[in-house]
Design brief:
It is a single chain. The chain contains 15 helices and no strands. The chain is an all-alpha fold. It has one domain. The longest helix is centred in the first third of the chain and has 43 residues, at 2-44.
């Protein structure tokens, strides 16, 4: 009996490590593409083109909301790096985070959930992301412009001497550095969830009262696919309300926030974005249950 328990624990530990490696591997192509874009913008764009890019940022939250709805959390990771290089606005970043579905879509499809309901949830998240993103840009855009950063500041902070390497090699270097950071963080988070136990996280959400919206939004912030898996499975089992599901899914932007804190050195700005995401999740979840 002791031997069986030991084997199960070892297998679970191996699963944690494998999940961390797989989650990181999924993000690497997104990171590489992002850093190539950043390098091209830094080295190739003229001031005229840069101005054109900034002028088109007005529609950023709309595009961000749509792109964030694509399965998995790769776009939230891309958006974090693009924001740190000031290619996209804070509102666009928020729109991507709020509309990101992470593992919700594949889980619901595999469980043969109602297609109409699934589409409504995705469209609702996209709409919330767009609206909140536009509002955030209207309120915070001027402050953001005053503290305007440049893409090459990221290189200076990393001390990577990118100017000597060329676009591709420089992008690969950035991808490896950020990839290692994400891998370590992923492994630590998986181990913590393994020690705490998914059942303990589920128990926190089973009391259908006002606190569950705050707890669901908090669990959604965990930069790991396990968060969206737990919340989605509880909803499909009729153990939490639709509003509680929405609260967790709105804040569940995968590794996007983790990468933001790594690449963007403005801690006050990062905490502001975190607070916006969290309280929007709580508020919208409550509103959904009040209306439906």
């Amino acid at each position: 009996m002791v031997y069986v328990v030991t084997v199960v624990k070892e297998n679970n530990m191996k699963d944690c490590l494998m999940d961390g490696l797989i989650d990181t591997a999924k993000l690497l192509p997104y990171l590489l593409i992002t850093f190539i874009i950043l390098e091209l913008l830094e080295h190739k764009l003229s001031k005229k083109n840069e101005k054109l890019l900034k002028e088109n940022q007005k529609v950023g939250p709309v595009l961000g909301g749509l792109l964030g709805a694509l399965p998995q959390c790769g776009f939230s990771a891309m958006a974090s790096s693009l924001f740190s290089g000031r290619v996209i606005t804070i509102g666009t970043l928020v729109a991507v985070y709020l509309s990101t579905s992470d593992e919700m879509l594949p889980i619901m499809l595999s469980e043969h959930a109602d297609t109409k309901e699934l589409l409504l949830i995705i469209c609702f998240k996209v709409l919330v992301g767009m609206i909140v993103g536009v509002i955030v840009d209207l309120i915070l855009k001027k402050k953001e412009e005053k503290s305007h950063n440049h893409i090459h500041h990221m290189c200076e902070e990393e001390h990577c001497h990118c100017d000597d390497d060329g676009i591709i090699l420089s992008s690969i270097k950035h991808t490896i550095k950020i990839g290692l950071f994400i891998l370590i963080a992923n492994l630590l988070i998986n181990l913590i969830i393994f020690k705490v136990g998914e059942d303990s996280l589920k128990d926190l959400l089973l009391d259908n009262n006002i606190i569950t919206y705050f707890l669901s939004s908090l669990i959604g912030l965990i930069p790991n696919c396990a968060a969206s898996v737990i919340i989605t499975e509880l909803y499909l089992s009729d153990l939490i309300t639709l509003g509680t599901l929405i609260s967790g899914l709105l804040t569940g932007c995968g590794l996007g926030l983790l990468l933001l804190f790594k690449t963007n050195k403005n801690l006050k700005e990062n905490l502001t974005i975190l607070a916006i995401i969290y309280f929007v999740g709580v508020f919208i979840g409550m509103i959904v249950d009040l209306i439906i």
